[in-house]
């Protein structure tokens, strides 16, 4: 079983995660997010490759969920995968994300979501670099960067 599947964890640096679960109506999300952010995070959309704000971003800091501001990925785990979307080899904390099987498009993929607000972030693949071998392929529209 791949390490990003249910029940498997590996050591990550410790950061705080927000324990309070966020639940809002579609109308509330629509007033708080841009139309693209809403489409991607609340309706499992995907932004076109090489168009997102962070696909080639090099800043140092933390990428947070655009919906609830939970810390998701650190710049120290970001790498250039050449796919046109921001790619990371690990989340800041396993508990900051959750995954489930995605069978859309006739493919079996693993969807990545924010554990606090269930925002769709992207997908995870097992073709990433060491130390995890994972590639979290994440939509820029689902992220907000906080510089250090």
Concise synopsis of the structure shown:
It contains 2 helices and 9 strands.
How would you describe this structure to a colleague?
The protein has 2 helices and 9 strands; from the N terminus they run ααβββββββββ. The strands form 2 sheets. Strands 3-4-8-7-6-5 form a 6-stranded antiparallel beta sheet. A 3-stranded antiparallel beta sheet has the order 2-1-9, with no helix packed on it. By secondary structure, it is mainly beta. Helices cover 10% and strands 27% of the residues. The protein has a single domain, classed as Metal Binding Protein, Guanine Nucleotide Exchange Factor, Chain A. A hairpin with a 6-residue loop joins strand 5 (97-102) and strand 6 (109-114). Residues 1-15 have low confidence and may be disordered. The longest helix has 8 residues, at 35-42.
What features would you highlight for this structure?
148 residues; mainly beta; Metal Binding Protein, Guanine Nucleotide Exchange Factor, Chain A; 6-stranded antiparallel β-sheet; 3-stranded antiparallel β-sheet; 2 helices; globular; disordered N terminus
């Amino acid at each position: 079983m791949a390490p990003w599947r249910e029940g498997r964890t590996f050591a990550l640096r410790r950061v705080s995660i927000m324990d309070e679960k966020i639940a809002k109506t579609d109308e509330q999300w629509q007033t708080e997010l841009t139309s693209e952010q809403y489409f991607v995070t609340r309706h499992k959309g995907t932004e076109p490759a090489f168009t997102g704000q962070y696909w080639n971003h090099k800043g140092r800091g933390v990428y947070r969920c655009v919906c609830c501001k939970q810390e998701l990925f650190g710049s120290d785990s970001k790498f250039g995968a050449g796919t046109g979307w921001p790619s990371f080899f690990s989340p800041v904390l396993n508990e900051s994300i959750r995954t489930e099987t995605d069978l859309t498009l006739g493919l079996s993929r693993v969807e990545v979501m924010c554990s606090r607000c269930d925002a769709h972030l992207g997908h995870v693949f097992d073709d990433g670099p060491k130390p995890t071998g994972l590639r979290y392929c994440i939509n820029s529209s689902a992220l907000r960067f906080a510089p250090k």
